[in-house]
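Section 5.1 Outputs to date
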Amino acid sequence: MILSQQVEALAAELIALPLAGLSAAEINERIAAVIGDADLDVRQAALDLAAEIIRKRTAAAAKHAEMLQTIERLARATNCPDGTNAVTWVQELGLIEPDGAGWYVLTPLASTRPVP
């Protein structure tokens, strides 16, 4: 249990590292500063966990971006008035609905609605 907590804590630290704009050497130094004195198996597990979390976050961000593009296309296709929130417009038309996890999904109506 303690080992798992240590891996999770190190992975959280790794994910929080500000790495944008740094050279590969600087990135390696920052990572080493976080995991440097941990056992080899803990270091590897923390790196693996951090990588998996980042992959999942990236996939979720891509999914949200795709949905935003879809909402914008639906709003344009249904003549959303200028200045109107596209999400609100499309939701009021019944083309999307909340998914319960803080985002939206298309309704069956979105694929069958004739566009005026």
